[in-house]
Each structure stands twice: as structure tokens, then as C-alpha cells.
Inverse folding.
């Protein structure tokens, strides 16, 4: 009979705890929020916590100070242990008291523990006797059937919730990998642009120097030929002068042709370097766009369980993929805001 009643206590106080959390969230956010870890209307931590308190501390209900002290210690240990285990099992921190004074690892807050101590005293001395009296009116056979149905429901709910959390973890892992690759592509694009500019500048400078050297040498040759031609021109006939002028003009044309050829080669070199850099850049940009689309698709694939948990636990944090989780939660908030506007 004792186990029978303990099981009933678990479901009753788990439900009452869920009602308390929902009422608190509704008052604070002005809308309904399912604050339970499970999908159903039950908070297992309340069911376990209050059942443990009434089972172990009822013998001390006449000693108010001792009852309060033991209640405070017991609920602190239970909350801290539950938060730690859920963190290690699911790789998420479900609540966080880090910003509160007198917190222990963010799992418990001693100020809230003092408040819970008062609540436990009230439960043990006032509420629980009434609850127990009501439960005694339930026929034993009916109670067994109810417990069987409720236990099946809670195990199914636990399985669905755990599967949803694992799915969320896989989703976060995939999104984090894509984000890392996008960051790598961004770095490569920057390096590609930098290297392309440096190569172009180096090639341009080298060809400019060659062009200047070739031009200077050709100019010297032309000037020398022109000067020599002038000297000869003074001593030759008119016909010879015309031939010399023709040769001088031909030399000038060759110089211009050589200069123009060098310019074309320089331009072609720039084009080749620029073309190679552009091709690599386009490939990286195409891959980046593909990854961004995949990232957005993953962000929109969140299941109902993960969406509910993000709403139920506003301070929930992912241990392994904190930035990705926060971004996913922000997208959910924006989507909810857009729905409310419509």
C-alpha cells in the first residue's frame, strides 16, 4: 500500500507542480506556456521532490524549525542533482541561476531554496494531509488501473521527449558543421582575393619594369640611329636623305609595335591571373550559397518537442553548440513574433 500511495503522490504533485509553473509563466509572459520537461501536464521533478519530502519529513512536521531546515537542504540537493544529471545526459543546461546571488554552479540558488523550504513546510503540515485524505477515497482497484495508464503515458512521453532532444542535438551538430565550413570558405575567399591582388600587382610591376627597360633601350637605339642619320644626311644626296628618313621612320614604327606588344602581353597576364582568381572565387561563392541554403533548411526542420522545450526553458543552453542553439532559438522567437503580427 505504501508504494501505491507514493506513486499516487508522484502524479498528483507532478501535476500540481506543472500547474504552478504554467500559472507563473502565464502571469509573467501573458500567454500559455507548457513549462514541463515532458509534453504532458506533469513536472517529474515536482512529483519526485515533493514525494521525497513528504515521505522522509512527515515524522518531523511538529518541529517547525527542523522541518524547515531539512526541507531546504533536501530540495536544494534534489534540484541540483536533477539539473546536473539532465545536463550530462542530454548535453543541455535546462535552467540557469548564474545571474542570481548565492547560486551553486547555476543549478541551484540558495535564495529560491529558502522559499522552497517554506513551501515544503506548508505542504507537509497543511496540503499533504488533505491530498492524502482525498486519495483514500479512490477505490484501490481503480487506483491501480489509473496508475498503470498514467505510467504507460509518462514512459511514452519520456521516450518522445528524449527522441526529440536527440533529434535537436543532431540538428545542432549538422548546423554547427555547416557554420564551421562557411567560416572556412569566408577565410578562403579573403585569402583568394588577397593573393590574387598581390599576384596581379607583382606581375604588373615586373612587366612594367621590362616594358620600361625595353622602351628605354629601343629609344636609345633610335636616337643613336637618328643622330647617325643626321650626320650622314648632311653628306649625302637628296635621294639618300629620303632613304635614311624612311629607315628612321621604319625604326620608329618597330619601336611602337614592340611597345604595343609588351602592353598586350601585360594585359593578357593580368587577364589570366584575374580569370584564375575569379574562377576560384566563383566556386567558393557557389559552395557558400549551397551551404547557406542547407543551413536554413536545417534551421526550419526543428520538431515540435524542441520548439516547446525552447519556450518552456527560456534559459536553456546547449553545452556543445551554444552559438548555434542561440541562433536557432532566436529564429523561433522571430517566427513566433511574425505569427502574432499576422
Amino acid at each position: 500500500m505504501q508504494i501505491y500511495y507514493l506513486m499516487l503522490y508522484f502524479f498528483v504533485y507532478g501535476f500540481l507542480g506543472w500547474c504552478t509553473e504554467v500559472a507563473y509563466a502565464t502571469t509573467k509572459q501573458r500567454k500559455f506556456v507548457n513549462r514541463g520537461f515532458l509534453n504532458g501536464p506533469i513536472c517529474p521533478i515536482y512529483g519526485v521532490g515533493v514525494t521525497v519530502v513528504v515521505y522522509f519529513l512527515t515524522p518531523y512536521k511538529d518541529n517547525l524549525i527542523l522541518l524547515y531546515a531539512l526541507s531546504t537542504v533536501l530540495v536544494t540537493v534534489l534540484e541540483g542533482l536533477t539539473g546536473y544529471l539532465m545536463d550530462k545526459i542530454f548535453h543541455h543546461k535546462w535552467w540557469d541561476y548564474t545571474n542570481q546571488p548565492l547560486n551553486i554552479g547555476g543549478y541551484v540558488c540558495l535564495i529560491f531554496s529558502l522559499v522552497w523550504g517554506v513551501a515544503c513546510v506548508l505542504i507537509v503540515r497543511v496540503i499533504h494531509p488533505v491530498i492524502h485524505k482525498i486519495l483514500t477515497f479512490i477505490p484501490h482497484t481503480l487506483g491501480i488501473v489509473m496508475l498503470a495508464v498514467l505510467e504507460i503515458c509518462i514512459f511514452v512521453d519520456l521516450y518522445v521527449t528524449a527522441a526529440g532532444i536527440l533529434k535537436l542535438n543532431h540538428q545542432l551538430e549538422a548546423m554547427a558543421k555547416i557554420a564551421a565550413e562557411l567560416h572556412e570558405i569566408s577565410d578562403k575567399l579573403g585569402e583568394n582575393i588577397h593573393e590574387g591582388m598581390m599576384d596581379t600587382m607583382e606581375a604588373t610591376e615586373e612587366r612594367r619594369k621590362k616594358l620600361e627597360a625595353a622602351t628605354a633601350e629601343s629609344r636609345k637605339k633610335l636616337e643613336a640611329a637618328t643622330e647617325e642619320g643626321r650626320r650622314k644626311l648632311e653628306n649625302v644626296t637628296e635621294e639618300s636623305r629620303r632613304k635614311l628618313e624612311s629607315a628612321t621612320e621604319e625604326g620608329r614604327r618597330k619601336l611602337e609595335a614592340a611597345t604595343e606588344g609588351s602592353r598586350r602581353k601585360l594585359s593578357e597576364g593580368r587577364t589570366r591571373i584575374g580569370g584564375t582568381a575569379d574562377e576560384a572565387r566563383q566556386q567558393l561563392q557557389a559552395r557558400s550559397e549551397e551551404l547557406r541554403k542547407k543551413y536554413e533548411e536545417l534551421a526550419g526542420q526543428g520538431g515540435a518537442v524542441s520548439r516547446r522545450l525552447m519556450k518552456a526553458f527560456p534559459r536553456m543552453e546547449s553545452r556543445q553548440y551554444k552559438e548555434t542553439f542561440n541562433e536557432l532559438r532566436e529564429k523561433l522567437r522571430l517566427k513566433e513574433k511574425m505569427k502574432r503580427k499576422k
